[in-house]
Amino acid sequence: MRRYNLRSNDSSRNQESNDSRDVRTYVRYGECEKNQAERIGGHAVDGCREFMASGAEGTPQALTCAACGCNRSFHKLEVRTEVVASHGRHGQQRLQEQR
């Protein structure tokens, strides 16, 4: 599973306890959902299981799948968000995980 950390927001810190929360959002593009048989009135997908970018991030090729040749928008979007709390200098503790 490829993970992309799109957002890492550090919320305002409580000055008395020195606690902070970090929200991390991971985005993954799964199987291709493009209907390959739409022109003939059917439904068939190509079987591509995961988006793999054809080029480097920030280039137009990054939006094209190397496996099936489809645009990234045809691939199923999966977003996972987790909230991590940092308690002073004692490290981090995972508070909540959503799928």
TrEMBL record:
Superkingdom in the source lineage: Eukaryota
InterPro entries: ZF_HD_homeobox_Cys/His_dimer
ZF-HD dimerization-type domain sequence ranges: 29-78
Keyword tags: Cytoplasm, Metal-binding, Zinc, Zinc-finger
Predominant cellular place of this UniProt entry's protein: cytoplasm
Subcellular location: Cytoplasm
Ranges of Polar residues composition bias in the record: 1-15
Chain positions covered by the region annotation Disordered: 1-23
Matching Pfam families: ZF-HD_dimer
PANTHER family linked: MINI ZINC FINGER PROTEIN 2, ZINC-FINGER HOMEODOMAIN PROTEIN 2
Protein name: Mitotic fidelity of chromosome transmission-protein
